[in-house]
Design goal:
This protein has 496 residues and is α/β, with parallel strands linked by helices. It contains 18 helices and ten strands. The relative contact order is 0.08. The mean pLDDT is 89.
Amino acid sequence: MSSLSNFVKRIRDIMRNDAGINGDAQRIEQMAWMLFLKVYDAKESDWEFDEENYESIIPENCRWSNWAVDDRSGDAMTGDTLLNFVNNTLFPTLKNLEVSKDTPIKKSIVKTTFEDANNYMKDGVLLRQIINIIDELDLGDYEESHAFGEIYETILKELQSAGSSGEYYTPRAVTDFMAKMIKPQIGETVADFACGTGGFLTSWLKELEVEKEKLGTTEAQEKYDNSIYGIEKKQFPYMLCITNMLLHGIDVPKIYHDNSLLRDVLDYTSDDQFDVILMNPPYGGNEKNEVKNHFPSDLASSETADLFMSVIMYRLKENGRAAVILPDGFLFGTDNAKIAIKKKLFSEFNLHTVIRMPHSVFAPYTSITTNILFFDRTKPTSETWFYRLDMPEGYKNFSKTKPMELKHFTPAMDWWNNREEITVDGFDKAKKYTAEEIAEKNYNIDLCGYPHEEEEILPPKELIQQYQEKRASYNADIDRILGQITDILGINLTEE
């Protein structure tokens, strides 16, 4: 392809002229189903070469190479003919493919990918132009295929500013840092139960590839190929994730279109557990009773992130490791469910490290401050280290044009292997707390936070949310201190 770097711009410019495309989110979704079919067609060419009796699940007339490719003979479908084919043949066919529990994953993903997909374009001539640009990709060429994998990252990155779709994208610097600290090993499995577009899984594969190359065996390759597992409940990011995995050489992506919260956690067995869990659970949502009923009553929080935290704990193997992003609200939360979840975390798992991330890491989607919890299932927690990662010098905020980069984690990585307590201007930047000290704080682990932050002008909704979080934190501290005072004085406030 002449200019991969210009790929997204060329498509955007054409789609702007189509009356059916309304905004970036639809533009990316439109691009996504075409990219999937193009990538899947390239994979099928490989499978046909490697497997003597390979049969496609896609009917011949709907395979990309048989309808999308323009050989410049003048016979390629365009205009109303193309629109009619896409809307009335292609989509109904792929949505209604027959699959069973015996259908191989690499075939069944076609149906699940298209279940809720849409064609938004209304101009068949413009649609032809887009298809031709996408078909220029030479995915049989290793270098170009690899280069396009990088371009695909930029497409996913644009989700940050594509309205509500931004919830699916965790900055690659963050996923890469977490994968590095987890240190993947060949033979281990990793899971993400709200995998979005697959950012954590690709970061895992990047780190694991180094280990695979060291061994250089067919067995290592096979274990590498089978090391990932993901669940995503929303159709659009699911489609993007499947394509992402295919682009990264995973021919059988174990990515499922499902809701991780709709299964009783007590039903999980060792077969449902994983060596490593890497996640950024959705947060801020309120779950209904039908979801909460899948959890023990003491853990049945209405907050989405809390429920995912319970799922993670039930699905982490003995001796397994986890790295999970959670908002400040989890750290200082003192409602009954949050305390029960944190008690379980400290009593059954080893929460060894909490990295406090600076504000605006997820800008422009949200300004909510987040943290990375690193824990393993080896023993109860005896002590937990907290480390505050400060904003890099010269930055007031991260933004779309100045995003967080992996190099900004360098101070944390340097400290990780040489841990020491650090105090800056009288405030703790890094400090170790015993499990007993944390229990005395009623599991309020809002420690080593940010003491001096310039006032930031936020949208009204986020400002209100931030103040609510601060109020909850202050209330938690007040309740804890009052409790200590009344215990010392022997006062029972419930008595008349």
